[in-house]
Amino acid sequence: MHMADALLSPAVGTAFWAGSMGIIGYCAKKLKENIDERMIPLMGVLGAFIFAAQMINFTIPATGSSGHIGGGMILAALLGPYAAFIVIASVLTTQSLFFADGGILALGCNIWNMGVYPCFIAYPLIYRTMVKTGSGTRRILIASILSVTAGLQLGAFSVVLQTTLSGRSELPFSTFVYMMLPIKL
Question: Which of 44, 75, 133, 169 lies 20 to 30 Å from 95, alpha-carbon distance?
């Protein structure tokens, strides 16, 4: 779901950079207050895994975007939302800077789209409310499918909004939504 810089106006890109950086700062503060030292190596290993998994992507025709596995939800389920957001932001930054996956202007949007929705909406509102201690595998599977789907669909819809707000889409809003969301589903 990486966006390219060409899809964004400087104003929209900068606004999402600011929002993403603010959330990174908040997450860093929360982690500093409650971090378990054993979680740091786990964050690194999971970050490397998600980095590799997200490098396998495909172009979504006529949208200027690409699709790949979304790592934010699995990170949130395993690490909690604050650590997950820091890890996904690190992965996306590395992909942007060293592999030209997305772009510098689009990095704030990409962090927002692939981090905020899975870590702070899908995880707490769907996954964590459905999966309690002692939940069976069926309940965990259903919660996983619903939360991943919600996180990815919200991210895809956000790409459409960000591109439209930037005035860079040649597609009408409804056509863009119609193309983007089913492909992400």
Answer: 169
H helical segments located in the chain = 10-34, 39-54, 72-79, 81-99, 107-111, 128-130, 137-165, 173-184
Q: Give me the CATH number covering residue 125.
A: 1.10.1760.20
How confident is the model over 29-74, as pLDDT tens digits? 999 998 888 899 999 999 999 999 888 877 777 656 666 778 999 9
Q: Can you give the residue range of the structural domain that contains 54?
A: 5-184
Which tokens go with 172? 């009408």
Q: Which of 74, 72, 94 is nearest to 27 (CA)?
A: 72
Specify the number of domains making up the chain. 1
Could you tell me if residue 160 is left (phi over 0), alpha (psi between -120 and 50 degrees) or otherwise beta?
Answer: alpha
Is residue 118 a contact partner of residue 148, using CB atoms and an 8 Å limit? Answer: yes
